[in-house]
Amino acid sequence: MPKARIAVIRGDGIGPEVIEAAENVLSTLDPTLSFVHFEAGYRHMKKTGFQIEDDTIEAIRELDACLKGPTQTAFGTKTQKGVAPTIREKLDLYSNLRPIRARPGVKCLFPQTNLLIVRENTEDLYKGLEYRSGESSFGIRVITRLGSERIARFAFNLAVREGRKKVTAVHKANVLKETCGLFLETCRRVAADFPEIEFEDALVDATAMRLVTKPEDFDIILTTNIFGDILSDEAAGLIGGLGMAPSANIGDENALFEPIHGSAPDIAGKGLANPSATILSSALMLRHLGRATQADRVENALNEVLAEGKVVTPDIGGKAKTSEMAQAIIEKLQLQ
Ligand code: ATP
Q1: What's the pLDDT band for 140 if we cut at 50, 70, 90?
Q2: Is the CB of 289 under 6 A from ligand 1?
Q3: How far is the CA of 12 from the centre of ligand 1 (A)?
Q4: For 164, which of 140, 147, 159, 278 could close a Cys bridge (C-beta 3.0–4.6 Å)?
Q5: Minimal CA–CA distance to 99: which of 287, 329, 305, 271?
């Protein structure tokens, strides 16, 4: 198997703790994986004046993948763009994949939940095109045919690859007639190229409710940037909380993997952070690198620890520290 060189950003808050856990799991799994560390985020900005430097992004571009811990983004109009949006934009990581899957032993509303959220990652209100004029403020929502087409193709190709049956395009085209209208029109056109995959569309508000009443209605949710952001935090609540939800940011040339949770400053440095989301993100990374067997091994080891429920963090009902949970996963890996 060719060697893989992974860029690692530890990030802020609980970032260093969950990244250390994932890195230890990966090193046990495959000692030939090599890690190149970069500093970025709020703490880094306090020291250097930059959330992330252009040189760092160029170095990440040359490596095989990037594993990133959460980074803190400051509020306020005079602050810099966050690390994740900057990397997504510069490396054109237009697809955000967020698997929402219930795990054995983790208390959740619907133990059968197993859906994928595909979120467009570069457009929408998150372009940051906002301004203030007197006592009013304005934001420009950008949805393009190209952006909608490539994310729709990503979702349908994923459905084929993963053996999924249905894609649901989520929008608000009855009100946002131009922006969501263009998104929906494009999704419909792409769907016609994949007759073997069922296609439906749904309003975002109705989807928010269906997610907590009938999540089994969904297989792949395909949606715009801001709706995907909100729905995926909601969906994480279905499977045990933010500590359980991984993500992949994928472009044509590069990819970045990170937990969907933020830097959680309230629990930082206390060993309370659940490392599962970051470890599952590293499994997504292995799969992306063509290392499906290794990814399965990581997921199986984590599933065993979760199912036993003895060495898990407080957010999912245990008493273990982040590092103790990582160690339990490592021991399961060594027994495989
Ligand atoms: P952001 O705006 O950066 O996405 P957020 O406001 O969504 O951040 P998070 O930092 O993601 O907030 O987390 C919200 C709360 O969820 C945290 O304060 C913390 O209590 C809990 N939490 C988040 N991640 C984890 C984790 N890995 N383990 C345990 N609890 C977590």
Answers
A1: very high
A2: no
A3: 12
A4: 159
A5: 287
Active site residue 54: no
Helix (H, G, I), strand (E, B) or coil at 23: helix
Each residue's pLDDT tens digit, 182-201: 999 999 999 999 999 999 99
Q: Provide the b/e sequence for 279-304 (b: ≥16 CB within 10 Å).
A: bbbbbbbbbbbebeebbebbbebbbb
User: For residue range 197-242, what is the model confidence (pLDDT) as tens digits?
Assistant: 999 999 999 999 999 999 999 999 999 999 999 999 999 999 988 8
**C-alpha neighbours within 13 Å on the C-beta side of residue 42:** 17
Q: Which residue has the tokens 């969501």?
A: 180
The single residue listed with the structure tokens 């949606």 is: 223
Q: Which residue puts its alpha carbon closest to atom 3 of ligand 1? A: 262
Catalytic residue chosen out of the listed positions 12, 68, 94, 126? 126
46 is catalytic: no
C-alpha distances in angstroms, 249 versus 171, 200, 210, 273? 21, 24, 26, 22
Nearest Cα to 70, choosing from 83, 60, 59?
83
Q: Which of 98, 116, 29 is nearest to 258 (CA)?
A: 98
Q: How confident is the model at residue 299 (pLDDT cuts 50, 70, 90)?
A: very high
Whether 119 and 228 have beta carbons less than 8 Å apart is answered as: yes
Q: Across the beta sheet with 5-9, what order do the strands follow?
A: 34-38, 5-9, 65-68, 255-259, 246-250, 95-101, 114-120, 220-223, 166-171, 198-203
- 247 pocket-lining for ligand 1 (C-beta < 6 Å): no
In the residue annotation, 126 being an active-site residue is answered as yes
Q: Which of 30, 219, 233, 296 is catalytic?
A: 233
Torsion of CA 42, 45, 51, 56, to 10 degrees: -120
Q: Tens digit of pLDDT for each residue in 83-110?
A: 998 999 999 999 999 999 999 999 988 8
Assessment of whether the complete model's pTM goes beyond 0.90: yes
